[in-house]
Amino acid sequence: MIELIQQIIREDPYLSNIKGIEISDSGEGMIEILIPFHESIQRTGGIMHGGAIMTLLDTAGGLSILTLGNLVNQVTVNLNTNFIRPVSSGPVRVRSEVVRSGKNIAFCNLELRDGNGKICATASGSWFVFR
Questions:
Q1: Are the CB atoms for 33 and 56 separated by under 8 Å?
Q2: Which of 4-18, 30-44, 98-112 bottoms out in mean pLDDT, i.e. has the lowest?
Q3: CATH number of the domain bearing residue 37
């Protein structure tokens, strides 16, 4: 399954534009992705852009659901995000854990940490799953 997820990261037209995304940990219903803190994800002031934070949270959520296997794809239904502090160092780590997966909907809790290990954003979301 990890090979498929790595292929998705490499070949997805949107994700392939984000430099350096890699899987740093995974298991059934859990994934952690790592990304360097580079200029293309920053905004004025040298902090991470909120859109990049949302992208990484959304990506990790969807990928953690795919680790459950027997799924063709998933799409985000809802993603509630709390921005706790600015991200100004890397590498950035995003961890997602599936808290429940039903017939059509899966739910995840996520956190994004900066290079110092501080939690900078948390999220919870739901994804529609295609079997």
A1: yes
A2: 4-18
A3: 3.10.129.10
pLDDT at 122: 98
Instruction: Give the range of the structural domain holding residue 27, as residue numbers without chain letter.
Output: 2-130
Cα separation of the two ends of the chain: 15
- Considering only CA atoms, give the Rg of the chain: 14
Determine the number of helices (DSSP H) and then strands (DSSP E) in the chain.
2, 8
The three-class DSSP label of residue 31 is strand
Res 2 pLDDT > 80:
no
Tokens of 100: 């429940």
| Cα–Cα distance measured from residue 20 to residue 35, given in angstroms and rounded to the nearest whole number | 6
Count of structural domains within the chain: 1
Q: Can you tell me which residue has the tokens 């295609």? A: 130
Strands (DSSP E) found in 17-104: 22-27, 30-35, 42-43, 47-48, 73-83, 92-101
Residue 111 parent element (H or E): strand 105-113
